[in-house]
Design goal:
The chain is of the alpha+beta class. The protein contains three helices and eight strands; from the N terminus they run αβββββαβββα.
Length: about 210
């Protein structure tokens, strides 16, 4: 009877050890490597077709009006100019920012586009008024700054199996240099961006 109990106990020990050996991790075995999904490649050899650039005179800065009251006239004392329309050389594309940058470069590289346009992401520099009026007749005056803004839409075409017009967008840039600035008499009628400046700052006239 006692021998039978010992034999059964020994059998239980062997069974436990066998189960442990099956469930324990193998020492020295490397874990499986995580799967990596390769990023989709950008299309190469794409071309851009642009619409003719539209040039617009855009009011970018305007100063509060100055009033000359002396009967014999005098120099107008303008307050500091205020920004009306911030400008940045940029582009948008339905294919994303990287494609927008390529499209902007392609637009600048066109032989029919005016040379000297700013690089992508460059902003309009602060206003510097080159106009100095030493004497002017009595009245209310406004000084302003404006820039030539160029806008063009585009479509992208890529070679290969998907040789379709697969992306569209718009380029917006500007002529970066002043002296595109001046002053005007509030008592006289004005058009285009000068009318905008008059509506913003003149308290008399149009």
């Amino acid at each position: 009877m006692q021998k039978e109990r010992i034999a059964r106990g020994a059998g239980a020990v062997v069974l436990v050890l066998a189960v442990a050996s099956c469930t324990a991790p193998h020492r020295g075995a490397a874990p499986p490597a995580p799967s990596v999904t390769a990023p989709s490649a950008e299309p190469v050899g794409c071309g851009y077709t642009f619409t003719p650039a539209v040039e617009t005179e855009t009011l970018t800065y305007v100063a509060p009006s100055a009033t000359v009251t002396a009967p014999e006239g005098g120099p107008p004392e303008y307050p500091p100019a205020l920004p009306v329309q911030p400008l940045t050389a940029t582009a948008t594309s339905s294919a994303g920012e990287a494609d927008a940058r390529r499209a902007y470069t392609a637009f600048r590289d066109q032989p029919t586009v005016r040379a000297g346009l700013p690089e992508f992401g460059k902003a309009l520099p602060p206003y510097q008024d080159p106009v100095r009026v030493t004497k002017i007749g009595p009245g209310q005056y406004v000084r302003y700054g404006y820039n030539l803004v160029y806008t063009s839409s585009f479509v992208r075409s890529c070679p290969g199996a998907a040789a379709q017009r697969d992306a569209v967008g718009t380029v917006t840039t500007f002529w970066p240099d002043f002296p595109l600035s001046g002053w005007m008499d509030c008592a006289k009628p004005h058009e285009t961006f000068r009318q905008q400046a008059a509506l913003l700052m003149c308290t008399t006239g149009t």
